[in-house]
């Protein structure tokens, strides 16, 4: 088994050289950074959200070359295990996300930045909201995963595309399989999620 440490880039770019080459069927262990590329830490506050550099968002570990892969092939990835780093975060970032322009569904008290740090242990994540402790079961999955785009240049990771990308599919948990069609079979993976639910 290969272990690939968090050697990262922050854009889809097919001119990047692979950090490792693997064969079809190989089992690899991939270490990723958290979504902000370490701009948010366990000691961060909501004020830190105002300083976020969105050019650093989604640090991608890779690229990983699949030997013998040719343009038009599909890459199939099976997720065998996830390990979190013991903490995570949830944020409301003004002007960003699906509710950015929706004044009807965004509460007034969330008009400014909000940040909650969660502690993860024994399969659960816990955070304090005033006097109330909230505990949710962890269902880890990768937020960004995909292959290099066939187009030259650097491309943002934020919108999902034909190569995969920022899909946030909460069902990509242990035992699931993802197939991605691509012209360039250089594979990268980013940020993990511990839990994502509609409450």
UniProtKB/TrEMBL annotation:
Q: A single Pfam family, by name?
A: FmdA_AmdA
Gene3D superfamilies according to UniProt: Acetamidase/Formamidase-like domains
User: Would you say which domain of life the source belongs to?
Assistant: Archaea
Q: Name one GO molecular function term.
A: hydrolase activity, acting on carbon-nitrogen (but not peptide) bonds, in linear amides
Q: What name does this protein carry?
A: Acetamidase
């Amino acid at each position: 088994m290969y272990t690939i440490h968090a050697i990262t880039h922050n854009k889809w770019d097919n001119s990047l050289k692979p950090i490792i080459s693997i064969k079809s069927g190989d089992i690899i262990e991939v270490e990723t950074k958290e979504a902000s590329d370490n701009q948010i830490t366990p000691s961060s506050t909501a004020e830190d959200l105002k300083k976020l550099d969105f050019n650093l968002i989604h640090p991608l570990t890779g690229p990983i070359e699949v030997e013998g892969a040719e343009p038009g092939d599909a890459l199939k990835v099976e997720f065998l295990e996830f390990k979190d780093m013991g903490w995570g975060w949830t944020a409301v970032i003004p002007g960003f996300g699906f509710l950015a322009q929706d004044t009807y569904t965004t509460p007034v008290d969330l008009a400014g930045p909000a940040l909650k740090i969660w502690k993860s242990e024994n399969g659960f994540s816990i955070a304090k909201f005033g006097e109330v402790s909230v505990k949710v079961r962890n269902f880890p999955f990768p937020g960004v995963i995909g292959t290099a785009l066939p187009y030259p240049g650097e491309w943002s990771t934020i919108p999902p595309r034909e190569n995969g990308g920022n899909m946030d599919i909460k069902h990509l948990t242990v035992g699931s399989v993802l197939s991605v069609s691509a012209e360039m079979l250089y594979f990268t993976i980013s940020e993990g999620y511990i839990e994502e639910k509609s409450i």
